[in-house]
């Protein structure tokens, strides 16, 4: 199944065109790094894929997710809203509600999947609370479940945001510069968490990154944008120092990144006891109100 299919996607803001007829296909279970200099169109492309942005009209462009059309020639299709529920989006700024507990934030991942009255009254079904706690356990934050989001570190908040998309049971994760605000150790942990979800759950992940060594280490495929056009689209190992130099407008000899290569799967979880806590144990924990 095709997870993402884009054809002839163009986007302009005023008289400035930031995406020029982009074509892309992403398949099930891929982990794709989206790289490119600042302003090359990475965020716009991600916003387009998740239905937050309309393409230009009159271009015959088309976007489909999971083989269903979300927009065509600048018009959203009837499937768009339903398909958005299947897409988990992670932003650089975490987007947790700071005064609420981490668990409540993570439960928000269920909002598109429960009746509205439950969401507005905060009466999440027990099964959803178990899902949220399992997600927190997978990202190594079970002990922080009842902590206010504002008291968590940046790395913890970003892993909280990942737990939220796990709770959403997203089939596609779009992460827009998820590690840009993090220290190196937290960045590594966030990237290995995304990679592990991709490997264990076969969730498709697209991650835009400024730190290209992380893209080299964790992604199977690199899509490189330059001035709104795809400059490179292929296996991570196939991108050359010259490609990178061209992308960022630097001398190839000044780059020290080719030593970074895709990591081999280890099968090791990022956290001890990760992900598979006994259901009973988790059910007991949800007795605490959220
Ligand atoms: N809502 C908007 N209105 C006007 N211009 C916009 C808007 N959104 C993006 N742009 C412009 O589109 C271009 C591409 O922006 P985009 O954020 O997609 O790039 P990016 O590759 O994600 O950059 P960065 O890595 O710095 O986040 C930039 O020139 C930006 O100023």
Name a few traits of the molecule.
290 residues; globular; alpha/beta; 10 helices; binds adenosine-5'-triphosphate; 11 strands; six-stranded mixed beta sheet; Rossmann fold; disordered C terminus; 32% helix; five-stranded antiparallel beta sheet
Textual characterization of the structure:
- Helix 5 packs across helix 6, helix 5 crosses helix 10 and helix 6 runs parallel beside helix 7.
- It is built from 10 helices and 11 strands.
- It is an alpha/beta fold.
- The C terminus is likely disordered.
- It has a single domain, classed as P-loop containing nucleotide triphosphate hydrolases (Rossmann fold, 3-Layer(aba) Sandwich).
- The strands form 2 sheets. Strands 7-8-9-3-10-11 form a 6-stranded mixed sheet, with helices on both faces. The chain has a 5-stranded antiparallel sheet with strand order 2-1-4-5-6.
- The protein is globular.
- Strand 10 and strand 11 form a beta hairpin.
- The site of adenosine-5'-triphosphate has 10 residues, from helix 1.
In short:
With 290 residues, the protein is α/β, with parallel strands linked by helices. It contains 10 helices and 11 strands.
């Amino acid at each position: 199944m095709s997870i993402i299919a884009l054809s002839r996607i163009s986007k302009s803001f005023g008289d400035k065109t930031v995406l020029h007829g982009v074509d892309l296909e992403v398949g099930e279970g891929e982990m794709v790094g989206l790289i490119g200099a600042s302003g090359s169109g990475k965020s716009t492309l991600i916003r387009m894929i998740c239905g937050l942005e309309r393409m230009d009209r009159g271009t015959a462009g088309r976007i489909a997710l999971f083989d269903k059309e979300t927009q065509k020639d600048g018009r959203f299709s009837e499937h768009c809203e339903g398909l958005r529920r299947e897409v988990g989006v992670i932003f650089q700024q975490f987007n947790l509600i700071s005064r609420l507990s981490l668990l409540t934030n993570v439960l928000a991942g269920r909002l598109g999947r429960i009746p509205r009255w439950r969401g507005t009254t905060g009466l999440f079904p027990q099964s959803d609370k178990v899902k949220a706690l399992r997600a927190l356990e997978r990202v190594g934050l079970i002990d922080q479940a009842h902590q206010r989001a504002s008291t968590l570190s940046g790395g913890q908040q970003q892993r909280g945001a990942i737990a939220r998309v796990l709770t959403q049971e997203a089939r596609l994760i779009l992460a827009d510069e998820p590690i840009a605000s993090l220290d190196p150790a937290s960045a590594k942990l966030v990237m290995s968490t995304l990679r592990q979800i991709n490997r264990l759950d076969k969730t498709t992940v697209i991650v835009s990154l400024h730190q290209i060594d992380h893209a080299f280490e964790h992604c199977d495929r690199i899509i490189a944008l330059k001035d709104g056009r795809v400059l490179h689209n292929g296996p991570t190992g196939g991108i050359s120092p010259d490609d990178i130099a061209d992308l960022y407008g630097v001398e190839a000899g000044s780059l020290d990144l080719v030593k970074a290569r895709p990591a081999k799967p280890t099968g090791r979880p990022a956290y001890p006891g990760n992900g598979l806590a006994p259901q009973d144990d988790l059910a007991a924990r949800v007795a605490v109100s959220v």
